[in-house]
Amino acid sequence: MDGIITDALTKNYGSLCAVDGLTLKAENEIYGLLGPNGSGKTTTVRMLTTLLSATSGSAEVCGYDIEKEKSQVRSCISYVPQDMAVDIRLTGRENVDLFAKLYGIRDKAERKRIVADALEVVNLTDRADSMTKTYSGGMKRRLELAQALVHQPRVLFLDEPTIGLDVASRRTIWEHITKLKKSGMTILVTTHQMEEAERYCNRVGIIRRGKLIKEGTPAFLKADLKKEIITIRSDGSLPQSLPAGATFIETNESGFIFSADKGSNIMPELTAAFESAGSHVIYSSIREPNLEDVYMQSCGDDRGDNIPFDDRQFRNLMTRR
Ligand SMILES: Nc1ncnc2c1ncn2[C@@H]1O[C@H](COP(=O)(O)OP(=O)(O)OP(=O)(O)O)[C@@H](O)[C@H]1O
Ligand SMILES: [Mg+2]
Question: What's the 184 CA to ligand 2 centre distance in angstroms?
Answer without folding.
Answer: 26
